[in-house]
Amino acid sequence: QEDIIFEDEEMNYLYEEAKKYGKEIHIPIALMMYGGMRVSEALAVQVKNIDMKKGTIQVTKQTKALRKSKHGKSKGLVPPKTANSVRTLPLPNEVAQILLDGRYENKDEFLFTQANGDYAVKKNWSNTYMNKFLKKIGLWEKFKAQPNHLLRKYYGSKKILEGVPNHVVAKWMGTSVTVLETTYAKELATIEKSYYQTEVNV
User: Fold this and answer.
1) SS3 state of residue 176
2) Residues 116-173: pLDDT tens digits?
3) What SS3 class is residue 56?
4) Closest by alpha carbon to 152, among 89, 97, 99, 78?
5) Rg of the chain on CA atoms, in Å
6) Does the global pTM surpass 0.70?
7) Do 66 and 150 contact (CB within 8 A), yes or no?
8) Angstrom distances, CA of residue 89 to CA of 16, 38, 59
């Protein structure tokens, strides 16, 4: 698959359109794009996971579709993908603003809920909201291969290019340094190149 080139202007356009579209799109996108979360993690964030005083947000769960034969349920809250995925990261301003504007009544509330007040799972949210949104704003062709993951990848790309150490970015994203270095080889090469002198004066 061809590498996606992220243009800040285009990504800013996506986020501004998400805010206009409504909270069903705006909230999960903010958590993926500015918090580096997987979509299943973003859909599981509750008010109690955010500490406004410390300026942190915790990832402790993900939503998952279950076979109905399992406990008679079609979905549930389960531990994140790997042991590394349970993590604490800096609270993005965009997410803090959502909390301030949201008028949440208790700490167990999910940041994002469906119209019926219930939490969502990845496939349902993507099909119901994300894919339609990307088509409406004209970015479906660019994002259709991995519409949710590319927002998380944008976060990783930005943090690396800002010079945040690899092990810190990996921790914030709930992944390993090895996976990070493979996924963001192009960005890391750009950082490395910036240390080289382009001209040597003897």
Assistant:
1) coil
2) 888 999 988 999 999 999 999 999 998 998 999 999 999 999 999 899 999 999 999 9
3) strand
4) 89
5) 18
6) yes
7) no
8) 23, 14, 8
Please write the tens of the pLDDT for every residue from 10-44.
999 999 999 999 889 999 999 999 999 999 999 99
Q: Is 72 exposed, middle or buried (0-12, 13-18, 19+ CB in 10 A)?
A: exposed
Q: How many CB atoms lie within 10 A of CB 47?
A: 15
140: which 2 tokens?
Answer: 């479906």
Q: What are the distances in angstroms from CA 88 to CA 35, 36, 99, 194? A: 10, 12, 17, 30
Q: Which of 73, 57, 174, 65 is nearest to 125 (CA)?
A: 65
Residue ranges with strand state E in 42-175: 50-51, 56-59, 62-65, 75-78, 87-90
CA distances in angstroms from 176 to 74, 101, 179, listed in the order given: 31, 34, 5
